[in-house]
């Protein structure tokens, strides 16, 4: 056999083998693509009104999740940042410079998600911190605004969410990525004023739009099936919906938080001065005033043809000892339900007793605080019959059945 003939046959064999390999690879890739395409879009979870609760605790117990299910809670909005970590910042390692998910923290998170899966409890995952935006309570009570000034931190935040989505997409119970809790780029322009919804809104909304677009695109490259939830600016104030720029992405849910009037719901500002309904800082607040305050959300929906199933009231609540809190909850929920918005109260069995409504409106016994100082457990007597929680429980048990497919009309 000639060397020439051998070389020609050898070359021919290589060509054939390469062709077969390419064909098999194409078939395999197509199979994987079809498999990915067959994954149901989780946006269908939000087709009808969903009522939930926030858990921002250092741990999530099976007992609390089972209680949530018994009350009719349909999803948990879960903040990850308070979970214990050996590093500076949970999952991120260090918000000053993100490189990769911390493996120990990731294993802990997966254990929580496994438990939620076993309990069949849907969850929205949110972050209080991101690279260049460490949560104030974990940052010496100082605002960290670097993410709004330095695109390198935004790039790191996009990498962080891309890495996290790579893990979370495996869990059917994860029904939303709430990319940053209560963004407030307004603080770049006003460090003192709490209500900053009128501060440099053109610049603020451009910053927020560019940030949201970057993070959403990074997530969707990895997971196009899980809805992305974005908060409005000025700490998710509904008023800032008048300037909010919607994303072009189709898998977006828009969220706001409702604690107005803040001087009433916040225990430090109130200090027993105000009750609801009534005058707060010279303005009379009742259901009509609450509805007017949230009117910008309706305007946003009409202007941009956003259906009700793309609006989430991510948080609402108040200090449990405030006078009239039951009526405040009743009026808020009535407005949410009139608009067919999803909602989640803050909070279920929070580590801070002030917004744990199952505890009623009385101060905790001194024995509880003594046990806290000694690092010991103290059993708390929780009752669902306490008036503010009874309002929540009643609303949770009313499941509702109307589909949310069309944009809202005038209400």
List the helices and strands and how they pair.
Layout: H1 3-37, E1 51-55, H2 62-71, E2 75-79, H3 103-118, E3 123-126, H4 146-149, H5 151-168, E4 174-178, H6 201-222, E5 228-231, H7 233-236, E6 252-258, H8 262-265, H9 267-270, E7 278-280, E8 283-285, H10 287-293, H11 295-304, E9 311-316, H12 325-338, E10 342-345, H13 366-373, H14 387-397
Parallel strand pairs: 1-2, 1-10, 2-3, 3-4, 4-5, 5-6, 6-9, 9-10
Antiparallel strand pairs: 7-8
Helix pairs in contact: 5-6, 12-14
Write a brief caption for the model.
This protein is 41% helix and 11% strand. The protein is α/β, with parallel strands linked by helices and 411 residues long.
Key features?
411 residues; alpha/beta; TIM Barrel; eight-stranded parallel beta barrel; two-stranded antiparallel sheet; 10 strands; 11% strand; disordered N terminus; disordered C terminus
Would you give an account of this structure?
It is a single chain. The protein has 411 residues and is of the alpha/beta class. The chain has a single domain, classed as TIM Barrel (Alpha-Beta Barrel), CATH 3.20.20. It has helices at residues 3-37, 62-71, 103-118, 146-149, 151-168, 201-222, 233-236, 262-265, 267-270, 287-293, 295-304, 325-338, 366-373, 387-397, and strands spanning 51-55, 75-79, 123-126, 174-178, 228-231, 252-258, 278-280, 283-285, 311-316, 342-345. The strands form two sheets. An eight-stranded parallel barrel has the order 1-2-3-4-5-6-9-10. β5, α7 (233-236) and β6 form a beta-alpha-beta unit. α5 packs parallel to α6 (201-222) and α12 runs parallel beside α14 (387-397). It is globular. The chain starts with a helix and ends in a 14-residue tail after the last helix. The relative contact order is 0.11. Mean pLDDT is 89; it is low at 1-38 and 400-411.
């Amino acid at each position: 056999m000639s060397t020439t003939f051998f070389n020609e046959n050898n070359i021919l064999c290589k060509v054939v083998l390469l062709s077969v390999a390419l064909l098999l690879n194409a078939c395999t890739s197509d199979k994987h693509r079809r498999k990915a395409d067959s994954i149901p879009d989780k946006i269908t979870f939000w087709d009808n009104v969903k009522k939930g609760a926030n858990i921002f605790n250092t741990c999530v117990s099976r007992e609390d999740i089972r209680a949530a299910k018994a009350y009719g809670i349909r999803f948990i909005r879960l903040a990850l940042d308070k979970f214990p970590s050996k590093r500076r910042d949970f999952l991120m390692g260090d918000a000053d410079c993100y490189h990769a998910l911390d493996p120990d923290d990731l294993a802990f998170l997966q254990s929580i998600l496994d438990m939620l899966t076993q309990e069949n409890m849907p969850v929205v995952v949110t972050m209080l911190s991101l690279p260049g935006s460490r949560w104030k309570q974990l940052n010496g009570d100082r605002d960290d605004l670097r993410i709004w000034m330095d695109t390198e931190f935004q790039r790191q935040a996009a990498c962080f969410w891309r890495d996290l989505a790579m893990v979370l997409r495996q869990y059917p119970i994860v029904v939303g990525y709430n990319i940053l809790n209560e963004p407030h780029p307004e603080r770049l322009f006003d460090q003192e004023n709490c209500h900053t919804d009128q501060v440099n809104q053109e610049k603020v909304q451009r910053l927020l739009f560019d940030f949201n677009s970057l993070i959403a695109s990074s997530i969707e490259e990895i997971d196009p099936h899980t809805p992305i939830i974005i908060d409005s600016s000025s700490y998710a104030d509904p008023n800032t919906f008048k300037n909010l720029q919607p994303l072009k992405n189709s898998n977006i849910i828009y969220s706001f938080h409702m604690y107005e009037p803040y001087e009433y719901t916040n225990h430090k500002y109130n200090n027993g001065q105000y009750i609801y309904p009534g005058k707060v800082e010279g303005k009379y607040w009742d259901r009509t005033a609450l509805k007017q305050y949230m009117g910008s959300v309706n305007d946003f929906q009409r202007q941009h043809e956003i259906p009700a199933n793309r609006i989430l009231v991510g948080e609402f609540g108040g200090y449990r000892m405030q006078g009239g809190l039951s009526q405040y909850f009743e009026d808020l929920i009535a407005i949410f339900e009139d608009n067919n918005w999803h909602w989640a109260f803050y909070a279920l069995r929070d580590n801070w007793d002030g917004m744990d409504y199952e505890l009623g409106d009385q101060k905790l016994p001194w024995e509880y605080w003594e046990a806290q100082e000694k690092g010991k457990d103290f059993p708390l007597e929780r009752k669902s019959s306490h008036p503010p929680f009874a309002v929540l429980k009643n609303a949770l048990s009313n499941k509702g059945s109307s589909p949310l497919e069309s944009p809202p009309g005038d209400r």
